[in-house]
Design a protein that fits this description.
Blueprint lengths: L5 E5 L7 H10 L4 E7 L18 E3 L4 E4 L3 H12 L6 E8 L11 H11 L4 E6 L8 H15 L7 E7 L10 E3 L4 E3 L4 E5 L5 E5 L5 E3 L5 H6 L3 E7 L5 H6 L12
Parallel strand pairs: 1-2, 1-5, 2-4, 5-6, 6-7, 8-13
Antiparallel strand pairs: 3-4, 7-13, 9-12, 10-11
The structure holds manganese (II) ion.
């Protein structure tokens, strides 16, 4: 049994993506690194968990597995079955492209860190801005710095960090800001085309997304060339609304 630190790494771009390779290599500076990642791209699957079919985990070397499932499947399987001991940290990424504002609700990368947090581990997700980003090393360096901060402190349960790194074309990143989720403009575009049989098919989403300014937001920080680090609470209860609803009745039901 090793006393060395163990860090679990996953992602949603798949085991062979450049971002997860750069991330795992950089985190080796802090301890042993286990990689349990989807065997193919799972971007946009959010918190999908596979319950209706068996999962296969294929060994890919020492502390390396691919799983034919989602990032959530990977974390669940790693933390309950595959890893030789409990990890000190779970890191998901480095995603190809940003996960800003409401992206966190679609992102498989963020979902991987959410699973780590829900299962009781310190966790963060990290994504690299740009489309497509090419230089992952500066973001991997940021991951090591954030990992050091998390490892050296207590963190509240059911919380995680969502880290977005500006694309500096390979130059070191200079600054960061603690941020809140911003307001992205998704464009709501649907492209309709027709297949060779004349039936319509659809592509969701447009080109690169814009955002609306919001003080202290992750979008604004990335725009200014800063690393954006947003703390996320997995308790989704809207406390203020819960208070405001205290006197509201639902017709036909007794409030108790
Ligand atoms: Mn992705």
């Amino acid at each position: 049994m090793s006393n060395r630190r163990l860090i679990l790494v996953t992602n949603d771009d798949g085991f062979h993506a450049p971002g997860i390779k750069a991330l795992a290599a950089a985190l080796e500076a802090l301890g042993d690194v286990a990689v349990v990642a989807p065997d193919r791209e799972q971007s946009g699957v959010a918190r999908m968990i596979t319950l209706g079919r068996p999962l296969r985990a294929r060994p890919r070397g020492h502390l390396r597995w691919t799983v034919d499932g989602s990032p959530t499947d990977c974390c669940y399987l790693a933390l309950h079955e595959l890893l030789p001991r409990a990890p000190d940290l779970v890191v998901s990424g480095i995603n190809r492209g940003p996960n800003l504002a409401d992206d966190v609700t679609y992102s498989g990368t963020v979902a991987g860190a959410m699973e780590g947090a829900l299962l009781g581990f310190k966790s963060f997700a990290i994504s690299l801005d740009g489309w497509p980003p090419k230089h992952y090393e500066p973001a991997a360096e940021v991951a090591v710095r954030v990992a050091e901060v998390m490892l050296s402190r207590d963190w509240p349960r059911r919380s995680m960090l969502n880290v977005n790194v500006p694309d500096t074309q390979g130059a070191p990143v200079s600054g960061f800001r603690w941020t809140r989720g911003g307001l992205r403009d998704y464009g709501h575009k649907v492209t309709v085309r027709h297949d060779p049989r004349g039936r319509p098919y659809y592509w969701l989403g447009g080109d690169r997304l814009g955002h609306h300014p919001l003080d202290g937001s992750d979008c604004d920080a990335i725009d200014q060339g800063l690393v954006a680090i947003t703390p996320i609470d997995l308790d989704l209860t809207h406390e203020r609304l819960l208070d405001a609803l205290a006197d509201v009745d639902v017709p036909g039901l007794e409030r108790r």
